[in-house]
Amino acid sequence: MAHESKFDRRERRTRFQLRKKANGKPRLSVFRSGKHIYAQVIDDAQGVTLVAASTVDKEVRTKLKSGSTKDAAKLVGELIAARAGKAKVTDVVFDRGGYLYHGRVASLAEAARAGGLKF
Q1: What are 1-60's pLDDT values in tens digits?
Q2: What is the mean pLDDT of residues 88-104?
Q3: 10 to each of 62, 66, 93, how far by Cα in Å?
Q4: Which domains does the chain have, with CATH numbers?
Q5: How far apart are CA 58 and CA 56, in angstroms?
Q6: Edge-to-edge strand list for the sheet holding 48-54
Q7: Rounded CA separation 24/56 (Å)
Q8: What does pTM read for this prediction?
Q9: Which H or E run contains 53?
């Protein structure tokens, strides 16, 4: 068997804890790459993505010089909160994956909270 990375272990551990505490709420999942940041609200019971936003979306991309900054993450957080509001989703659980709650991930989460998502 291949050796599991520390990131994979952290990701698995956080998802396990989320499933215990979710109580049927959708999860706000964050993926961070070197150039972009992506967020989606997922209903795990049905296995569908309810809303999504990222720095590759046209409305975000035109406002930014780079998709890998805290400002970009803040815009994505505001956008995901607005789209979730339109889809009548207000309560979510925050899935940071294997990333630490710091920097771009924290910036996205705080902007989503300010936009009206509760977690």
Answers
A1: 568 899 999 999 999 999 898 999 999 999 999 999 999 999 999 999 999 999 999 989
A2: 96
A3: 34, 28, 17
A4: 6-114 (3.30.420.100)
A5: 6
A6: 48-54, 37-43, 27-32, 93-95
A7: 29
A8: 0.92
A9: strand 48-54
Tell me which residue has tokens 């409305």. Answer: 59
Q: What is the b/e burial string over 93-110, where b = at least 16 CB atoms within 10 angstroms of the residue's CB?
A: bbbbebbeeeebbbbbbe
Which pLDDT does position 1 carry in this prediction?
53
Percent of the chain exceeding pLDDT 90 equals: 92
**Amino acid sitting at position 119:** F
Would you tell me how many other CB atoms lie within 10 Å of the CB of residue 43? 14
The answer to whether 109 touches 76, Cβ cutoff 8 Å, is: no
State yes or no: pLDDT of 108 exceeds 70.
yes
Which amino acid is residue 99, in one-letter code?
Answer: Y
- Reported in sequence order, the residue ranges of the chain that DSSP labels E, i.e. its strands, are 27-32, 37-43, 48-54, 93-95
Could you tell me whether strands 27-32 and 37-43 are parallel, antiparallel, or unpaired per DSSP bridges? antiparallel
Q: Roughly how many angstroms between the first and final C-alpha of the chain, as a whole number? A: 37
